[in-house]
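Quick board copy: two proteins, each given as sequence then tokens.
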Amino acid sequence: MINHTTHEVKAAQTQNLLKITDIMAQIIKATGEVIEVAPKNGQYFSLEELQSAVEHNGHHYIEAVNLFNGQTMIVNEEGRLPHVDAPYNIKATQIFRRAYQCDFIFGNVIVCNNNELN
């Protein structure tokens, strides 16, 4: 019987369930809309690009969360805290839980390959 560490299992599950590494980064809106995006400079997203993708009610601080599959989810700093004014993001929560199995995501997020971040 093969013995895998919890981290290896989570990484494998995440890779199998979320296969967007071959395509562009995606903004996943709380409405369920998914928009493919690319860095303006063709290589790396700027801080301003990331902030504008996940901004909510003037909150510009962001948090980068490693998804353990070569990708990162960028959320508004308050995007993991329930707010009455920030809508629940079902799709982003499902992706997030594949890596962490807890928490909820509120507002818009961007999921990108790690090599698109500088």
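And the next:
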Amino acid sequence: MNGDKAVITGAPGHAGSFRIADYVRSVSDPDGTILMNTQNDAIMSLNPTATIIWQSLSRGADIQGVIDELKQTTDGYGEELADDVNKFIRYAVTSGLLYPQP
């Protein structure tokens, strides 16, 4: 483990904040979140951890802010959480759900 600091990669070459695409809709409950891409009608179901990531990003948190929120609400550790966040963000960016903020 790298102390309490997580290695942050997110989208390649970007460690800042992200913007949710205008065409993505979401609904959450205690079990998770459902995302819908209204451009192609694709639906994605998020587990509770991914829901925390999504909600944190929707509030404008940068990657480290998302990791810090997960540390407070889960039993994960820095590198493990950073890996989860980075995987989720890479998938969401690749899928067109998120865009890196300049």
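Board note added afterward: The chain has one domain: 18-97.
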